[in-house]
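Annex B, item 7. Sequence and structure tokens for protein A, then protein B.
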Amino acid sequence: MHDHAHGRRAIEAMIRSADLGGLLRLAETFHGHLCPFVSLGVKAGQYAMASLDRPNTGMEEIIAIVECNNCFTDGIQVVTGCTFGNNALIFRDLGKTAVTVARREDGRAVRLLVRPDYREQMFARYPAAEPLFQKIVVQRQGTPEEWHHFEHMWEAIARRELKTPLEEQFIIQQLQIEIPEYA
């Protein structure tokens, strides 16, 4: 592969070295803020890419099938390099925070599903976050001070969740899938 053909060199190095903090910083730039579900997307993307051991140049060597349209998906896009623009991101609205990342060449895939009790477990770890989450995110209310406090708390939780064992956050399956046609 020619040097000019691989604009993801730094990201691929972060994937190989499991630099979740560096990947999270990139995802924050793309997503606009930090939150636990961007963090989960980063972790899922890094795990899948390391597991599949296949760099992605954006030419559909890797595809990602996401089952949600929330913050998680932006973490997936940044780390895997699968986007709508390069035709490697497929959205199937199944209402689950999950992704299947696959190698086009042989259909080898890994699916990561956020555990159904993840949010409940996360709020149990950070009890001060849930009331602010309800007020700020769900109800779209709160004083400027509450918004500010919530943003800082949410960023800190996103960073801390990088250290939570993957198995506590995800159900992981190794799969063999039929790859969809090129876009």
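Protein B:
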Amino acid sequence: MNLFRTLLFAPGNHPRKVEKSLLLGADVVIFDLEDAVAASEKNTTRAVVVEALTRPRNSKAYVRVNATDTEFCFDDIQAVVSDGLYGIVLPKVDVPSQLWAIDWLITQLERARGFPEGQIDLIPIIETGKGLANVEQIAHTSRRARRLSFGAGDFSLDMGMNWTIEESELDYARAKIATASRAARLEAPLDTVFIHLGVIEDLRLSAQRARNHGFQGKLCIHPEQIGPVNEVFSPTAEEVALAQKYVDEFDDAEAQGSASLQVDGYFIDYPIVEKARRTLAVARAIEEVGS
């Protein structure tokens, strides 16, 4: 099972930050060619990112390319489809055709460069009103896209919303993205960044809200966010122990012909035990990576 609790952005035009980001304990590092890089530096930054993909790391490496309606997107993808790339993050996906076109391009590059077809992951970001309106269709577009992500910065700008620290205005978007993901049988989605630094308790609350909406992880913009977000999206020791108890007692009951039982006054049936099995799977994956 792959973990996507924390996905840390690293500005591609800062080689030292790129190098350090690979060993900070995030599940994923996203080398950024989009918002963090000035237009005048985008072409030269690609080489920095490609070199970084060859470095030792304890995180999966993705690259956020520029949006499909820019002059940079095609060359970004041409450059970064190389050894060491786990996947591409595609911003501002508004319609299914954008995702389909990028999937096609990656497939051609995989064939031309001798990579297994479908090896490179693709994460679309939903960050406009149009993208949210079309999210159900987007979610069904590409087999390469195994999970969606949410970008509240551009979304709140596009919608003319006030992005408050409490984030209640994001509830509808989060719920719609999570529902579309489930309907398309994708993995749980990835939540937006939290732009306030130094307020760890508010960061935890943001991550908890996303988790409660059915998200599996959160985009991060600073190393200080990795630990708290990893913690929120990791089951506690108590949750793991309870999940194991539910599974063990349910398996015993099922072997005797019963598919429901009470454990400590709590009703257990197939949906509850399936959730417990998922908790145990996440716990095993965390134990394997040691964080």
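Comment on protein B: The mean pLDDT is 93.
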